[in-house]
Design a protein that fits this description.
Elements (H helix, E strand, L loop, with lengths): L2 H16 L9 E5 L4 E4 L15 E4 L4 E3 L8 H10 L5 E5 L2 H9 L11 H4 L14 H10 L5 E4 L3 E6 L2 H24 L7 H14 L3
Helix pairs in contact: 2-5, 3-6
The structure holds zinc ion.
The site of zinc ion (ZN) has 7 residues, from loops.
């Protein structure tokens, strides 16, 4: 089932490794393939060894439809995003260094760059803490990602979403780069956010662009 989407997902995983968004088998990614189903990466399989047969098909209740492996432990978070967000057709969960550093500080990423707000939606919030793989984590992620395409997961990592897997991945790369710039700027002085009226206009742009 869904061979083309499984191939897209594997290609995205290769880029996640190349872009240093994850290491070995950490993090996960999924694509919503229909109203009923999503394809998601398996649990504990190194990306370097992952094949199409390892990708798991689940329904929106989390039941496994087709699998040789266990689905990612964060499947509840992916599915909760698909249930609550019509604009999200793909989700990337990274453990990238700079985004995770901010998540450890439990410090939100302010809107500091013009290129970022139309794509990610404004200040990127940090979730309340919850254990990995729990329904609480899924609930916290969806809450803190309200009207955003990215969120930092307290003491853990980050999640981005997009209308397709290319956008979800690009958003993860952009989030990581922006967190890096913010942390560098913090070391040198006091970063200055964009003017509030500019942020409001750019948030409106996010509204328009999120469905494309
Ligand atoms: Zn994780």
């Amino acid at each position: 089932m869904y061979e083309k989407e499984k191939e897209e997902l594997l290609a995205a995983c290769g880029e996640m490794i190349k872009e240093n968004l994850v290491i070995i088998s950490a993090g996960n990614a999924s694509i919503r393939v229909s109203d009923e189903h999503a394809v998601i990466t398996p649990s504990s399989v190194p990306y370097a060894k992952m094949t199409l047969d390892d990708v798991v098909v689940v329904n929106m209740e989390g039941d496994v439809i087709e699998a040789d492996r266990n689905a990612s432990v964060e499947t509840p978070t992916h599915l909760e995003i698909y249930k609550q967000r019509e604009d999200a057709n793909a989700v990337v969960h990274s453990h990238s260094v700079y985004a995770t550093a901010l998540a450890v500080l439990q410090k939100p990423l302010p809107p500091i760059l013009d290129e970022v707000v139309p794509k990610l939606g404004g200040e990127i919030r940090v979730t309340s803490y919850a254990m990995p793989g729990t329904k609480d984590l899924a609930k916290n992620v969806v809450e803190a990602m309200n009207r955003r395409s990215a969120v930092l997961i307290a003491n853990h990592g980050a999640v981005t979403c997009g209308n397709n897997i290319r956008k979800a991945l690009d958003n993860a790369i952009l989030l990581e780069r922006t967190c890096r710039i913010y942390l560098l700027a913090l070391r040198a002085g006091e970063p200055i956010p964009l003017p509030e009226d500019v942020v409001e206009d750019e948030e409106d742009l996010w509204e328009i662009m999120r469905d494309f």
